[in-house]
Write a structure and sequence with these properties.
By secondary structure, the protein is an all-beta fold. The chain has one domain: OB fold (Dihydrolipoamide Acetyltransferase, E2P), CATH 2.40.50. Helices cover about 0% and strands about 55% of the residues. It has strands at about 5, 10-15, 25, 30-35, 40-45, 50-55, 60, 65-70. The strands form two sheets. A four-stranded antiparallel sheet has the order 1-8-6-3, with no helix packed on it. A four-stranded antiparallel sheet has the order 5-4-2-7, with no helix packed on it. Strand 4 (about 30-35) and strand 5 form a beta hairpin. The radius of gyration is 11 Å and the shape is globular.
């Protein structure tokens, strides 16, 4: 299966990381919660898979389109 990359839909801050490397995730499961303009925006898995890498840390500023999590 090809890896898929979950990207940020907004410019904001990583508020909470809800998964760890090695976790199995379901389609539409929240992986990372971003905060932008006092709103919480979930970054969700596009399909079921396993977390291969987490590319950001809590409190880190991210740009729209930035890679957050790699799933395999």
């Amino acid at each position: 299966m090809a890896a898929s990359v979950v990207q940020s839909e907004v410019t904001g801050t990583v508020w909470k990381i809800e998964v760890q490397v090695g976790d199995s995730v379901a389609e539409e499961q929240t992986l990372v919660v971003l905060e932008s303009m006092k709103m919480e925006i979930p970054a969700v898995a596009p399909a079921a898979g396993k977390v291969a890498r987490i590319l950001v840390g809590e409190g880190e500023a991210v740009a729209e389109g930035q890679d957050l999590v790699v799933l395999e």
